[in-house]
Amino acid sequence: MKKIAALDFDGTLSKGYISMEFLDYLFNNKLCNPNIYQKQMNALDNYNSKNISYNDWCKEWGILWAQGLNGQSVSQISEAAETFFEGFKNNIYSSSPKLVSLLKEKGYETVILSTGAKEVVSLAADYLGAEKTYATRISVRDKTYSGRLLTDFHLPNGKRNFISKLKKTNIYSWDDSMGFGDSTHDIEVLDSVEIAVALNPQEILTNIAEKKHWQVFSHKDVVYNMNKLLF
User: Fold this and answer.
1) pLDDT at 227 over 90
2) What is the bridge-based pairing of β-strands 138-141 and 144-149?
């Protein structure tokens, strides 16, 4: 069985939030509900103003993401995602493809596990060379989005529940399993693996990582430190 390395995307492997920037792109191209878009902006303002927690913002984002694309053509959104990603990919840290390559070289299957939208996170995963992608998905009916989520990654326990189900499949060996994340939303993954890495962590995760004796790296030193760790 292969070892697994589960990696968050936003903040961990890239600057910013890919799905929020994609949402802006869709709004500017009249491909999402403008009223729902405004609700998304209000939720983001509430998070940035510290009126709601990161986890509460993720929960609200997921629900509104599905509602905002209700009735849109899947093929049209997919085409928009590809065009958008060409402009976004420069936000991915230069060390991120190197990290993924190193993990694969050391016998890990690299799995991107993200709250972000599958439409764009999957493109980022392909760019990085990651082998599998699990991200927020909306159900589809008659080649259009239904407005209903198929996944629960946006919920506080969503990633933990996914990891628990994945462990039961016996696809991977969890000896020396690794997890990478930057926010409190990733704690459930970092708690589930043998080697946890807080990568470009938010301050609150840095404090938690230090208490739990997790590795703490930045995108500037992660490849160097992982080479030492996996020697």
Assistant:
1) yes
2) antiparallel
